Amino acid sequence: MKKFLSGSSLYELTSYAKSRQIPAFRAKQIYSWLYDHAVCEPEKMKNLPAALRLMLQEDFYAPGSRIAERVNAADGVEKLMLQLYDGECIEMVILPAADGRITFCLSTQVGCPVKCRFCASGKHGLVRNLKAGEMLEEFALGISCAGRPDNLVFMGIGEGLLNFEELAKTLAVLSGEFNFAPRRITVSTSGYVPGMKQFATLKKEYNLAVSLHAVDDETRAKLIPPHLRYPVKEILSAADEIREANGRQYTLEYTLIAGINDSLEAAEKLGRIAVSHHAKVNLIPYNETGNEFCRPDKNIIAEFEQKVASTGARVTCRVERGSKKTAACGQLRVMRMQKKEEGI
Ligand code: SF4
What is the pTM assigned to this prediction? Predict the structure, then answer.
């Protein structure tokens, strides 16, 4: 398999240049295009000779991905559907905030093996892991549309900690070559404990978001199939290990689903868990995707939030953004797969 140009180190580029009898200064030029300018397409590397640009395209995936579709929502959210070198698709999302700051939400896998019952991304299971080069291409292609972001969240399609090695490489290049501050990067997990333990070993100030969604194992079992589900107690203990290793307060993500996990009793327990684990809570009212789950009504959401806050926990409530049809993660990809199946 060819390598990805994105993610190449200066050492690798210099070795490549040597093997192809290209002057060493060209390696530095390529490196600068990749990381100073976030350009991963050789045809845009204007100070390289045409023959070298062609050679890069032949020798590397450069890039392996292309923007297949851009979907704009009324509130400024933009979704990019990226087609990968093998024809598979992933999504990345560009989220502008009211203060002008921009967040990119990146995917880590094609599909997702966790198969949370409420999630469009997990619906068809895992196709494959993304390579570090592909995650870095998501970042670069996002920049080509919206400029350099202020924050990055790995909360798109996939369970990143099941693709730990490639994710760790990606994080190293982002915080190294791209000079992106680790505390501006958040990695989300569905509570995959072995991956959380590996993440703790990085000892860098990356933020962690734990998708807890339930305060007890019985309720969690209604939302997450057993093959990759870990007990709440073990998840919290692994998250504490990460906090102790990197000194960052973590977030408990909690998708609020009507009649499943939206009782005031659950709210109180969630608040108490957050306080005792020095964590914050982020509530996400469920974005309906046409399955059996529903979003609780506004009053229930507000009461739930107040109850969590009454325990002394820090709590925020995030409303999913993007047009109704495509707001939840993975929906664009699922719509494309359906079109393919229907021969449209
Ligand atoms: S919610 Fe996250 S972990 Fe669960 S299936 Fe969807 S992408 Fe995977």
Answer: 0.93
Q: How far is the CA of 342 from the centre of ligand 1 (A)?
A: 25
Q: How confident is the model at residue 330, as a pLDDT? A: 56
For residues 266-279, average pLDDT: 98
Minimum-distance ligand 1 atom for the alpha carbon of 123: 5
- What would the pLDDT profile of 154-173 be if each residue is shown by its tens digit? 999 999 999 999 999 999 99
β-pairing verdict for 60-61 and 207-211: unpaired
Pocket test for ligand 1, best of 90, 107, 112, 293 (most atoms within 8 A of CB): 112
Structural domains of the chain in order of their starting residue, each with its CATH number: 3-61 (1.10.150.530), 66-341 (3.20.20.70)
Give the residue, by CA position, lying nearest to ligand 1 atom 4. 116
Within 6 A (CB) of ligand 1 lie 112, 114-116, 119, 121-122, 157-159, 190
| Tens digits of residue pLDDT in 68-110 | 999 987 678 999 999 999 999 999 999 999 899 999 999 999 9
d(CA 213, CA 225): 13
Say if residues 65 and 83 touch (Cβ distance below 8 Å): yes
Cα 167 to ligand 1 centre (Å): 16
Q: For residue 317, what are the contacts with CB-CB under 8 A and spacing of at least 6?
A: 282, 283, 284, 285, 301, 305
